[in-house]
Fold this sequence. Notes:
The protein is mainly α. It has one domain. Helices cover 76% and strands 0% of the residues. It is built from 6 helices and no strands. Helix 1 (5-39) runs antiparallel to helix 4. The chain is elongated, with a radius of gyration of 21 Å. It starts with a helix and ends with a helix.
Amino acid sequence: MTIKTDHILIALTVLAWIIFTGLCIEAGGIITKTIATLTLTPDDAAKFWKQPDLGPVYQYDQSRYVTLATLIIIVVVLKAIMFYVIIRMFHSKKFNLSMPFNITTNRFLLHLGYLSLGIGFFSLWGAKVADRLTQQGVDIPDLRVLKLAGSDVWLFMGVILFVIAFIFKKGIEIQKENELTV
Length: 182
C-alpha cells in the first residue's frame, strides 16, 4: 500500500492539533501559575503547575520574576499561534497542492517566518535575563525547562522561511506570466 499525499496531510493535521492543544494547555498552566504566584504565596502557587519553578526568582526580585514569566508566556503563546496558523492553513479552502505557488501559501510562509523570528527574539531575551539572574546567584532551572532554549534555531528557521517565501513570490510571478502567455 502506498502512502498518498492526502494521507500525509491528514496525519500532519492531526499532529498539529495535538501539538497545538498541548501548547495551549502549557500556556494556560504557566499563566495560571504566574498569576497565582503574584496573588497567593509562592508555595501555594507551586501546586498549580509543576514546571518551571521560578520561586527563587520571585524571592530575589518580583519585577524580574514578572519579566521572566512574561517572556516564557510569550514564547509558549507564539508557538501555539504558529500551530494554529498551520491548522488554519490545512483547513483552508484556498490551500491547493496542485497549484502551490499562490498568494495564500506565500502569506502562510511569511506568517510562519514572522512567528519564528518572534519566538527566537523572545527566547533569546529570556535566556539573557535568566543568564543575568544566574550570574547574580539566583538558582534558575535550565533553559530547556524554562522553554527558552534554541533561540538560534528559531531565528535561523525564520530566516529560512523568509527565503522560501520570497522564492514562492518569484514562483507566483513566473506562474502569472505563464498564464498570460498561454
